[in-house]
Amino acid sequence: MDSKTVVDMIEASSGVHFSGFHMDGLEVRNKETGQPTISAAENLHRQPFVIGVAGGAASGKTTVCDMIIQQLHDQRVVLVNQDSFYHNLTEQELARVHEYNFDHPDAFDTEKLLSSMEKLRHGQAVDIPNYDFKSYKNNVFPARRVNPSDVILLEGILVFHDSRVRELMNMKIFVDTDADVRLARRIRRDTVEKGRDIATVLDQYSKFVKPAFDDFILPTKKYADIIIPRGGDNHVAIDLIVQHIRTKLGQHDLCKIYPNLYVIHSTFQIRGMHTLIRDSQTTKHDFVFYSDRLIRLVVEHGLGHLPFTEKQVITPTGAVYTGVDFCKRLCGVSVIRR
Where is each Phosphoribosyltransferase domain found (predicted)? Predict the structure, then answer.
C-alpha cells in the first residue's frame, strides 16, 4: 500500500481517533526516478539512545554512570558531563568567586551543551571542554574528543532543568541520596580534589548548594523515569536499570529502522512459545499450534493500533450498544525476526 492510499484512508475517517498509528515511517519515493528518498527511518537510524542522569551535588551520579558503562560493555557508550559546560568566569567574578553560585542554571552554557548533544545525535564527533575548577576556565586543558556512540550518558545536577535538554533524552534517571551523605562527600571531594578549606566548603553549601538544590534540582525529580535511592550503593537498583536499558536498547534499535514499530511485551507465555517453535525436537503439530497462537497475539495487538470511530448499533434484543468501528482496510501484519 503506498502512502497516498494511507492518507486517503485517514482523511476518509472523519473524527477518527488514532492509537499508535504513525505516518512518518512510511517510505516516500521520488516521482521521477521511483527511488526511495531519505525517510524519517533513515534519520532515526543515526540517532543514539540518550540517558540523562541527574541529582544533587555529590549524590553519586558519576558512580552510577560508571557502573552502567561497565555493565553495558557490549555497547558503545560515552559519558558527557554537564560540569564541562560551565561558563568562564570574568575578572570581576573571579575577584568574588566565593560569592558565585555554581549550582544555578545560569552558571552553565546550555546552548553549547545543546549544540554538542545535537552533533553527537547526528553522528558527528565533538570536542567537550575540560573545565578547570581552580582557574574557573574551560580552555586551560585540551578538549576531550567524544565520538558518536550507541548510548550517550548525559550527567549533571541540572540536566533535567531545561526542557530542550530533556527532550533529547530517551530515559531519565534521578539519583536520590540523603543530604547528610551528599554534604560529607562534598567536603571530602572539595578539600582533597579542589584544595579548599572546610570553612569555605560549608559556607558555600549553606549559601548556594542547599538553596539551589531545593529551588532548581529537587523539582526536576518529577521528570525522572527512574529514581535510584542511595546512588551507587544501590547495586540491586542499578542491575535492574541496566536490564531495563538493554530491553529499551533492543526496542530502540528496531524503532530506529521502523519508527512506526510497536514491540509486544515479552511474557513467560510468549518466551515459552518462542522456545517451542525454535526447538528442533518439537512435533509438527505443536509447531503449527504455537506458531498460530503467536500470530494471533500479533494480530490482536495490531488491531489495538488501528484507527477507529465511535459507533452505536442496535442489538437483536433491541438494546443500544456503543462501541468502536475499526478502519475497514488492514494494511497487513508482519512478524519481524530479530
Answer: 266-337
